[in-house]
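Translate sequence into structure tokens.
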Amino acid sequence: MTSNGSRKKATASTDIYAHLRGHSSEIDKQTWLCTDEVKQTVREKKRLYHVCLRSKTAENWSKYREGRRTAKKAVATTKAAHYEVINKELDTRDCERLVYRFAKSRRWQAEDVEKFHGINDEHGQLLMDYGKVWERWHDYSKKLSTEKFNHLPIAQLPPTQGPVPPITVEETEAALKQLKSGEATGPDVVAVELWKSKSWSPAAWLTESFKRVIVEKSVPLDWQRNDDSDMERQRQPRRLIEIPSDSPPVPQYEGF
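Result follows.
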């Protein structure tokens, strides 16, 4: 095999590898380094190198060494300026976000195959172009949020004949069992563990409160207002629950 054939084979292999990576055959990872000044000095260094190859004289060799020294100096100056900007950005409040972005960029560059989540168009054909994929997602989201779709009818219970039966203690106990422990408190600033406590009868007390709400057709103002902010809690005292006098004593709760 001739040298030209070997060069063509190597170039073809490079093009195939670059195509699999999703880049062109000329892969340049440091695009910020190719400034106008760096490009000009590198071209001048290459020109002096070819001149020195054609005519190997002491003068041409000296000019080539001077051009190579100038190119190295330009590259070093550009790198120092770029890294100085990066160091200043790392000293800001968004430095952690910048570090994560650098780590993701290095990981993506190290992958052999580029990730691509392909979707089909309206005719079932696979879309390979990023622009068409973006348009497909845009049209799908727009259609999904504007057009109505058929859904199953909502099941409705038969209406209650006669007066509404009062709330029972069993219904309140079933509702209390569905509460999850450790969750954030509501407007009453009372933990769920206290409502589930067995040392007093919270279900009976809540049942009487709900019956009173139904009779009066209004709820307390504290239930309608959201007092979850820390500043509001600091300004207002803790609201206590009035427990009937005939109930057993409530043990001290660790959360208070």
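Note: The mean pLDDT is 73.
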